[in-house]
Amino acid sequence: MATALVLCHDQSLHRIRISGRFLTVSSTGPFKELNKITCCSMYTDPSTLKIALLIGNNQGDIHSLDLEDLKLSDFLTFKGELANRISLSNEKPILQGLDSCRTEPNRLLLSYEKTLVVYDVSVREVLANWTLESEPMAAHWSLDGKFVTVASSDGSFLTFAPKGESLETPGIIFGPFPCQPVNKALSTTTHLGTLHAFSGGMPRASYGDRYTVTTIRTGRTECWDFASPVKDFCFAGSHTGQSSPLFLLVLTEEELVVLSVGGKEWRPIPLRCLFPLHASAVTTMTHVADIEEEVWDRLHKHSPHKRATIANWPLSYAQQMAQRTSEHKEQLLLTGHANGNVNLWTAGEASMQLLYCIETATEVAGCSERKESFTRKSLESDSEESECHLTDEWPPFRKVGDYDPCSDDVRLSVQRLAFDPKTGTIAVGCRGGHAFVYQFCENPQTCDAASVLDCSLLKDTSGIAPAIRSLRGIEPRNHSLNFTAGYQPRPVDESSGSLLVQLSPCVPITAIAIYDERSLLAVGTEFGFALIDYQKTRIIHQQSFLDHTDLADAGALDDALNRFKSMKKSIRQSFRRKKKATSNDTTLNNEHEDELCRPVERRIEARGALTQGLIIEPSKGLVRLIKFVPNIALGHAQGDTVWIGTHGGRLYGFSLSANGECKLEREIRLQHAAPVRSIEVVTDPNNKNSPASRLLLITEEQVRGYTLPQLKPTKYKVKLTANEGYRINKGSLVTLRQTKGDPSSDVFLALITNMGGILVYSLHNHRKNAKFTLTKATDVAGINSSILSQYGEIFWLRAGASLLQRASLCAPEAPPPVPVE
């Protein structure tokens, strides 16, 4: 059983206990006798092994809160036991700090302004007290209890023996110029000497904006530089039984960072839990189900986070005892980030863990050189202890942590992801109009410079906006790069060089799909799509769906000037309508005073102009959907197909012949011209091996059914926007199991709406089976980030995009019990 105590701003205390999969919360307080809480510390009675929370207040007293019954009792009163034994300059004895010694819990370290007191609880006596020249920021026992470390406001820290004798200290480390206060300082003894760690203390004028924790040992200094403010830090030993502090745990505002500082090598270690999802802003998410067992085993075998042994991890945390018995294959959640990283997370179980991180920025010129230089310096600093402090830079900063809110180039941002569950190959589409293909390799390799495959979607670019025409693609790296076992750029033919696909115009990728069995990659943008054979480095087919009227408006989403002009035009039109309405108010009111209004279904019609008030609509030819559907009948052809859906409500079905040709077989033009969200191929539910019989076309406003192979309309039709006013954000088929009794499953159509709800429809008819609410209608970011899994699980980002919320349409099995060590 694990217990956590939470102190809130209103001085109420909450006890949270975790036992298996059960979590209980008990609350108490606020207590009048506490007045104002100033400090807290956990205390273990050596005789009874009873654990309590010691609470200090602004009257100098200490109270004890029992963890079992949450009852408050007096522990130490200032007037009764301390007032006559110590002298304070201030009449109000405010207790500013409280710390219990680890080796001797009965010894308490108390901080009263400039006075430090060592108090023994067992004999109720003051062992020592001494006065400092300036008021300390914090004071703590060393882990071995042999001395006390005091953080000062002048940028230094001091060490004292338990009796108050001053010990040798390095003084102001980064002086002589004025430095920031040292907020907290800790010390301990290792087999290599005394190790100190403190936060702050940087030169105020030069590095006052840095968030650092500095570690010092004889002859060595390291300033760990973080991207967000440091909240707290502590030493921790290995939970396998080693007593010496081997690790430094640093909690920042955005992440937890674990540093190994006990030996000769000082280095960050990979996290095994508490991963920062928002290390870089999440730009896209994709869920993949039914991953082949061989692919899954290779991912786990070579995962850097899985390879870290438990002995090298300072925290003991929940271990899953048993897997759920399920017919489902393994599942992955892929997240793309603004800095070009792609993270692979385990999904389908209660615990999600980071398996792998792909850094696509290393394929770009400049980014790969910086990373290689940073890695080389890190290795050099760890290789020889005596040379670690010899550096041209002072203070010796070392960047650590995954959190990085800034991106070097917006073109690196990942826009779309595709994963082949049979082989594990990944396709990545980025904001700069370029795409990469990564494959999993179990051996380290050296990849040569990437070759660029330019693909121009427009023959004549004179008709597009100058701002779009001036966009340039990224420059690939021009040197070889070493890759460890894991995901590597897929080599071209028999060479060791990778492939970079660059579409022109260089606008963001809006859709991507991969079919690794035939080495096919399909990439779409606002100007069209291209089908590429990345094994032979050949463009099989490319096509633009824009006409001459759409070219001038294409790219308006990325054109700030167009947005500004649209806003001015909208405001101007609003004033004109207001003036016109004022002059006709009397006439209109008289004419329609007795008119009866009745609800009617909105007439299905094509959408209007691109500019709707302050909202700028993308061009009709923007590619919203690309999907490979293997081995189905389409028209007069039987085989592999690729489907393209546009923002203007058009669906194109292309057949892929055995010799590599791509031919348009069928085209659907919807009257309401709503954006295509997805397509689903439906087979006979009684015979899954039977050929596909229906195609479901899901747009922003409707769901339509078509027969295969001729694509003739069926009676299956859901007019969601016309009848209920919702718009469809995401839609897919989900397999839901029975919650009670019969273990069989059935397939349904699930739709996520723009109002934060989810609707479930039957495939046999267009009857609505269920309706749920996921999030608030005002949570636009959460709704837009939501995705559906094949087995009815929903993922979406919470406010702030640092938390991932999960929900399930059907959870027949309870999660397995999770023990806590």
UniProtKB/TrEMBL annotation:
Any single GO CC term annotated in Swiss-Prot or TrEMBL for this entry: cortical actin cytoskeleton
Family stated for the protein in its record: Belongs to the WD repeat L(2)GL family.
UniProt KW Transmembrane keyword: no
Protein name: Lethal giant larvae homologue 2 domain-containing protein
Organism domain of life: Eukaryota
Gene Ontology annotations of biological process type: cortical actin cytoskeleton organization; establishment of spindle orientation; exocytosis; Golgi to plasma membrane transport; regulation of establishment or maintenance of cell polarity; regulation of Notch signaling pathway
InterPro entries: Lethal2_giant, LLGL2, WD40/YVTN_repeat-like_dom_sf, WD40_repeat_dom_sf
Chain intervals for the UniProt region annotation (Disordered): 575-594
Keywords: Exocytosis, Repeat, WD repeat
Organism per entry: Mesorhabditis spiculigera
Stored Pfam families: LLGL
GO molecular function: GTPase activator activity; myosin II binding; syntaxin binding
Residue ranges constituting the Lethal giant larvae homologue domain according to the UniProt record: 172-266
